[in-house]
Amino acid sequence: MNRPPMTAKGAARLRAELEELKSVKRPAVIEAIAEARAHGDLKENAEYHAAREQQGFIEGRIKQLEGDLSHAQIIDVATLNAGDRVVFGATVELVDVDSDEERTYQIVGDLEADIKQGMIAISSPVARALIGKHEGDAVTIETPGGTREYEIAAVRYLG
Q1: CB–CB of 22/4 below 8 Å?
Q2: What are the φ and ψ backbone dihedral angles of 122, each rounded to 5 degrees?
Q3: Residues 45-98: pLDDT tens digits?
Q4: Predicted model pTM
Q5: What does the CA dihedral 128, 132, 138, 142 come to, rounded to 10 degrees?
């Protein structure tokens, strides 16, 4: 079975979310269910049904996080020594050849990707186009807005 890669930072974020769910949110929803039960008839008790639904979401997320963390191959980006070559975990600064617009992306696992934070999934078209390239290389990337050409300005490996 192929183990999906994940950065150590991404794994730490997921572990923190898991701990929050187990130690804070799960006990709170159990308390809410007990309180709603005390109100009597459960068939017409909206608070009870809402709390049970919330409990289902929390338990599902806990199972998902535990599964994701147990199957992931966790990679400490700070220990990678790939030089100026782009590999998983690299933070890559790109310059648009046409507009001189700069973009910075970190290539991360699918489970931790967040484009708003500049973290792109290893399986994304942009990451696939960058993998194996070196600082100074020109890269042509197919985007939804058309074909774009970028130059790799810098490649860093930050922990």
Answers
A1: no
A2: -60, -25
A3: 888 889 999 999 999 999 999 999 999 999 888 887 778 899 999 999 999 888
A4: 0.78
A5: -10
Contacts 24+ apart (CB under 8 A), 62-68: 62/18, 62/21, 62/22, 62/26, 65/14, 65/17, 65/18, 65/21, 66/18, 68/6, 68/14, 68/111
Rounded-to-integer distance, Cα 111 and Cα 130, Å: 19
Tally Cβ neighbours within 10 Å of residue 126. Answer: 21
Q: Note the pLDDT tens digit of each residue in 113-148.
A: 999 999 999 999 899 999 999 999 999 988 777 888
**CA dist., res. 22 & res. 59, Å (int):** 9
DSSP state of 109: -
Determine the residue type at 27. Answer: P
